[in-house]
Amino acid sequence: xxxxxxxxxxxxxxxxxxxxxxxxxxxxxxxxxxxxxxxxxxxxxxxxxxxxxxxxxxxxxxxxxxxxxxxxxxxxxxxxxxxxxxxxxxxxxxxxxxxxxxxxxxxxxxxxxxxxxxxxxxxxxxxxxxxxxxxxxxxxxxxxxxxxxxxxxxxxxxxxxxxxxxxxxxxxxxxxxxxxxxxxxxxxxxxxxxxxxxxxxxxxxxxxxxxxxxxxxxxxxxxxxxxxxxxxxxxxxxxxxxxxxxxxxxxxxxxxxxxxxxxxxxxxxxxxxxxxxxxxxxxxxxxxxxxxxxxxxxxxxxxxxxxxxxxxxxxxxxxxxxxxxxxxxxxxxxxxxxxxxxxxxxxxxxxxxxxxxxxxxxxxxxxxxxxxxxxxxxxxxxxxxxxxxxxxxxxx
Length: 396
Hints:
Blueprint: H1 2-15, H2 20-39, E1 46-50, E2 57-61, E3 64-66, H3 73-100, E4 106-115, E5 118-123, E6 127-131, E7 147-157, E8 162-167, H4 171-181, H5 183-186, E9 190-198, E10 202-209, H6 216-221, H7 226-234, E11 239-244, H8 249-256, E12 264-268, E13 273-277, H9 283-287, H10 292-301, E14 304-308, H11 310-323, H12 333-340, H13 346-352, H14 355-359, H15 365-395
Parallel strand pairs: 6-8, 10-11, 13-14
Antiparallel strand pairs: 1-2, 2-3, 4-5, 4-7, 5-6, 7-8, 9-10, 12-13
Helix pairs in contact: 2-3, 4-7, 8-10, 13-15
């Protein structure tokens, strides 16, 4: 019997991934509860010790040796119930401690079932995790029994269970996949500097290398596209654009809009905006389906991005030049300076005010104030003209 107790404890510790000593302590505590139940003395001084090597049980009640095994059926039932509760609590604690450390990591599980729109996934056959509908890639279907990879995004413990939340749509899921498929990323040689994702449709990542001998983009793509293919397949065909990182905002913005080619990029730091000029034949590529390409490029770079054709850009500049004729210098260098600052319209000038004109362009305060005043008046006139045109259209 004593050796059988040792085997039972060892089996529980192994199967439920629990600490062997904590099981012995739980068992001793449960036996104390059972003995108190038997004697009807909830405050009795009862101690129980189990020898960890041979399973020998020694119990005392008020310094009197008692045989814990002869206390009867009801105390034994109490011991069993208390033990079950304690082991469940220990198991919850063990699972929580294990998986809270894995938050942000990719795990592989098996689809068990669907509960409403959520998918329940078994992890290592020990714990169930939930993959909510909103965390599933659009258009994907997960069938019972199939393996699924996902990232742990939340782990919570309550009184009855540990709740683990998974995601396949989180942007960091992409980063973790690259760490798995691209050794250079896992080793920190290639760094994913920025990432923007619309799950199920398209992802853009900007990569850099700390080793000049390693091509960051090439390492992520792999020989004949083998590495990126594995990731795309995992994501059900989601398109992934890998662009080269640059500390130059202009270069990075140009790279981020690939596959479109940019002919000119104007940066306005005051507005946090970049105006990108592309040829007519590149316009649809730059904007992307439903604006997706430029939207992801903006999130990747941290800049608001406006896309203009050459004709649209020239029209903006011409309008600005005419508006500032009365304050511009003879050779029109003022407009060139404003363009260099990324200010392409009177609305831009109205928004930034006079301070950047004085600080960045070194204009005197009086001239800067005049420019802003002209811009404000022009914006008012344009708004009034639009309003009148709208009223006229409505009365037709």
